[in-house]
């Protein structure tokens, strides 16, 4: 059952739990104006005990450097809780942002949230981040 966390004119954030993963769906641009909402959602969910996340970017047409910084900061918080993070549905444009920043190899990317949640989270989570392992 999808639960709405934030709904504004610029962005909607909701989540669902699938096979041990908290699938955080973002709908809207991730930029200087909307990034605080993502940060807030991750902090709230971590506070509720969620540790393993899939960041669903299927409905994200744009990600700027501030948005990328929010992804990195969220990853650090998740890692502190011995959690995991996978990224689903990045468009070619979004992947380019990760490539240009040198962070492409630091994350595991999946074609869809369904693909990202097929396997339950592993115990090692983000232990090797930011070096990552080969993504799907």
From TrEMBL:
Pfam families named among the record's database cross-references: STAS
PROSITE patterns, alphabetized: STAS
Residues annotated as domain STAS: 11-120
InterPro entries xrefs: Anti-sigma_ant, STAS_dom, STAS_dom_sf
Signal peptide (UniProt feature, chain positions): none
NCBIfam families attached to this UniProt entry: ant_ant_sig (TIGR00377)
Annotated family: Belongs to the anti-sigma-factor antagonist family.
Protein's UniProt name: Anti-sigma factor antagonist
Species name: Streptomyces siamensis
